[in-house]
Each structure stands twice: as structure tokens, then as C-alpha cells.
Amino acid sequence: MSVQGQLVSNDTPGYSTSWRLRWHQYRNKLIANPRFQKLAARTPLVRLIANRRATQLHHITAGFVYSQTLAAFVELDIPKLLADGPAQTDRLISATGIPEPALLTLLKAAKGLGLLECYEGNIWGLGELGAAMLANPGIAAMVRHHQHLYADLSDPTALLRQREKTALANYWAYGDVKKGDISPETYSELMATSQGMIADYVLDTVDFNDKARLVDIAGGTGAFARRAVARFPNLRATVYDLPAVTEQAAAAHNSNDTSHALQYQGGDMFEDPLPEQADIMSLVRVLHDHDDKPAQHLINKAFQALSLNGQLMVAEPMAETPGSESIGHTYFGFYLWAMGSGRPRTSAELTSMMKIAGFNNVREAKSPMPSLVRVLIGDKINA
Description:
CATH architecture of the largest domain: 3-Layer(aba) Sandwich
Radius of gyration: 24 Å
Strand content: 5-15%
CATH superfamily of the largest domain: Vaccinia Virus protein VP39
Helix content: 55-70%
Order of helices and strands: HHHHHHEHHEEHHHHHHEHEHEEHEHHEE
Largest sheet: 7 strands, mixed
Shape: globular
Strand order of the largest sheet: 6-5-4-7-8-10-9
CATH class of the largest domain: Alpha Beta
Distance between the termini: 53 Å
């Protein structure tokens, strides 16, 4: 049997799958044929399709260059330098300390990505994507921390063979925070910065007006819970996370806000009891950080701790989201693999896990930004 044959499952495919397999095999042989490629280049309609495919393949090939262009763009604080309006090249040279030929290389590259616009007189201003970064500081924070992911991906096959002791896992040192070996500041800062944007999308999706008590599991510094109680005055919220995290967050909260709508409780969400009698619990960007067994365990614990008729809300980016497939299995797949724990899951997989725990009527609430976060809600009824 050929190597190609050995890679095909022994399971007998259904009619639909069998048809797709035959068609895709024929299609791929045709595309891989040099004679067909030459013919395609001379045929107007086929040439358009071939050109589009070639451009897509080039974008994949050049992806690392694009990401490093963005990294330099952020590292030199160009969005901030242009926040008040366009500026001439000389001013950017002075502010960044980068010589003109090198800086122009970056500026032109950023323009090609839609981050910058260029005007007559050597004037540069933010493009639509660059301006969007000003509204969402979490994007720049994510870009800066991606240096750890890039280090792991410098040898992707080695990463696939050995998942332990990666640069990204060392950055997200949950275990060291838990043991008190390192400060929770690094653990919390990026999550807090990036959580704000996600929190607003979630709160645009779910109405908490009829809720009295929220428990935000692994809520970090309280970025989501703070926004929730601010938007829904009748809501009281408890942020549950590692003691080192909640102690630091509570101290900062108490010094800036005298409201009693938000409180913090420390504990290990896997080993210690969760706060009880909440009518809604939230897992915002939590489950995808954990492998299947601990993730299922956490959902089970939430079911047990919730009051009767309570609800669990799961909010995170999900795999196979239409139009954003590369964000799920491609980006988050490799990111979480490098982190050493977790994987992206589909809406159907998460729904199944919630039903296994005992939740009924698991449904998806329509998110305004499904590429970044989708929301599932399950009810604890007939328990």
C-alpha cells in the first residue's frame, strides 16, 4: 500500500464524504499538473482563479514577515506617535531613532498591510487597521508578548514533538503563580489589557438584567466583572482566581472604588470549592486554556456550585467559526500547543461538554464579533 493510502482512514466513508474525496483527489491532481498550470495562465477565467490562489499561498508564505512588520510597528510606538494626526518622515525618524532608509522600509511595509497611509510631502498617517489599534490597546499588548510564541515557532516541528518547557509556557507560568514562586503581575497584566475588548463584546451579547449574582471563574483582575456590574446596576459579582491574583486585584480595586458590587475570592478552581448560590457563572476565555479532562471537571464543578435554575456562560473564540477558520485551529491551535495546555474547541464540542455536566437548553447567543468570541449559555434545570 502506498504512503498516501496508509494515511486514509479504514472507516468506510458515507456517500457524501466518498464523493468529496474523489472530487478533491481529481482536483488536486489537476492543480498539481504543470501542463494545467500553463493552460490556466492563458485562460482568462481560470487565470483569475489561479491568480487568487497564488496570492493566498504567497500570503501564507509571507505571514511571518507580516507579523514581524506589525511587531516593529508596535515596538516603535508608531500608533502613539501618529495618534494626534499625520506626521512627516523626519519627525518619525527623530522619535524612533531609526535611520531614514530603514524606517521607510518599515513604513512602506506597514502601508502595504493597511496599518498606515502615505500622503504627499513625505507625510504618514494611520490607516484603518492602525487607527483600530488605538481603540484596542490589548492588540498591542498581544503583539508584544508574541515574541515568546515566535521563539517557540522558530522550529515548528520540534515544537510539535516536544510541548514542554516552551517560552510561551514559561510566560504563562500558572503553576509558579499558584506556588508563589513568581509575582502574578505578568500573569494578570496582559489578560486585563486584552480582556476589556472581549468583555464588551460578551456584555453586548448577554443580558444580565435579571441576574443578581455573578461568579466569574478565573476572572483575573476583574476586567469582565467590573464592566458587568457597571452596565447592570442590580448585579453583584465575585471574581474567583488564585489567591495571589485576587489579593493584588482586590487591593487595587479597593483603592480606586468603594463600591460593594464587586468582591474577590481566592482559591484553586480545580481543587477548592467554587463560590456557591450564584445565579450565573462565567468562564471567559478559560476553557480553551485547558485540556479536555480538567476543562470537563471545571464545567462539572460549576454545575454543582450553581443555584437551581442558574446558568453557565462560556465565552471564548471557537474553532471552525465560519469566515474565521484560521483563527481557531490555525492560530489558537498552535498558540495553545506552545502554551503546553488546552486546545481550541468547536461550539458543538463545548455544547456536548456542558450537556455531560448536566446543563440543559445549551444555546449560542449571537456575538457581535464571533471571530474573537462566541458565547454559549446552559441552564441548570430539572437537576
